[in-house]
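Predict fold of Cyclin N-terminal domain-containing protein; 323 aa.
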Amino acid sequence: MTHSTKGAGSPVYRPAPSKWIFTKEQMKNTANRKEGMSREEELGYRQLAAAFIQEMVDGLNNVKDPKMKIGHTGLCVAHTHMHRFYYWHSFKKYDYRARNEAAQIIVLLESMILQTIAFDLNIHLPHVNVLQIMEKVDKDEHYRSLKSCAFYFATDVIAVTDWCLRYSAASMSIVIIHLMAAYANVRIERLFADFMTEGSPWYAQFDETMNEDKLREMERDFIQTYRNSCQFHYASKYNLRENRPPLDHPDVRKIERTRDARSHSPMINHQQVPDSTQNGRPRGYVPKDELTVERYGFNGHLDTQNDRKCGILSVRCAVDAFF
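Predicted 3D structure, encoded as tokens:
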């Protein structure tokens, strides 16, 4: 079922509000691909747009009152809406860097955005699924570092991939936990021992659509994308040894009832967050030669030496805290 909207710009034919997951074939028909842009080029623009949103959040969060700051989940929701918008519209026509006559452009685009997303403001982020799954399997918090690392790592998934247009939050959370466990040298069978039944994989009760082929395909896709986007890894700025997931989402509050978690959140304590251009680097930038992750558990081997240095963990500061 599709809907047609008219208003600012040309008519937009978009899916019904609940249909925001696209197939491989549909992803080949984005507005950018129709204009001749390759998938790699489009993904690069999406990553730049996500970085631009983060820059704006940094500026808006430069206030003393914590209540006035934009939370972590707010950032990820903005990233998701950006991905959705640029499925139907091209970067060439709607440049995220446009500043001329900013006020008029903002008013125009606000109307276009609301029509494009069909006024669907409900976003299901993988962060919540990650916390829910880890809460079930780790009630004693023996793997608290793994949970924190996976939570912030989910932000990288939203920012540097187009997965929010291709997979459900449940599927994304399964891959995130699996990859993080691999890099922490944690046997997934041990972590989910109480949830595995004979003949059923560990993820069966958390995502009915997941299977072994889909899991491997998503992992390969992510590793390739993440390896080529080191400058956009946001999770590396967090001090995961000390910080737990923030409590700026009602579902997260139900899961993480740590009284002081919010005061320790890096999104609340802005002074813990590096300046967006500190040392002349983009915010969250981690040079390849500074990535020191040397452990890997996916398929038992590394494809290249570059995978070892610039694989999926820019959150290298937390790896040494594991176990």
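The beta strands are 2-5, 12-15.
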